[in-house]
Amino acid sequence: MNNKGFTLIELLAVIIVLAIVSSITVMAVNGSFSNAKVRSEKVFINNVTKAVDAYIAENMTSGWGADYAGNYVKYESAKNECDDVSIKCDVKVYRKSFKFQEVIDSGYLKEKEVVNPNNKEKNADGTDKTCYDDSTEVKVYRDSDYVYCFMVKLGCLDKNGKAGVINTCPFKDTNSGLYTNNSNDYFTVDLKEDGSINTPSKIKQDLADTPR
Question: What span, in angstroms and rounded, lies between the C-alpha atoms of 101 and 105?
Fold first, then answer.
């Protein structure tokens, strides 16, 4: 009978192999967990977007005459989309706003659904960041083609010290005092697959300050 055991070198080799396999497994599990949370955040953003869109379609389709906000360039002369390249590439935009709480009160979202599963940041006092409060506003825009879009800043989308804005518009409203060109905001459409933020923003066109 051969009673020869493992040598010290053989045991060390086995331990090293097991350590490498273990570390690879841990990294794979952590990566899958992180990706799942990013995907969950995208689902959350999509659900909020659909709920706000449904509220707007039901409650915000009239009474826009006195709410002019500016112009933005909607069409491209290079694609022959403009009637007159000197004045007809842009459209007029009108703006209204309402409290985000109205989306909850109207039943388009439940309060427990307004939770970002990918939010790990906390307030300065250690409490969890909330998505919204009584002051949270949704800014709704309607262009002269009767196309609607909106912007809303939710605290639970804050990331890396920046405020997250759900923006379904093809522009940033530099006149509103809420969504600007500064580095303190980012737009959720700019989230990469790993949850980081694209630079520069995909939304490049600012709402013009003056009408044409």
Answer: 6
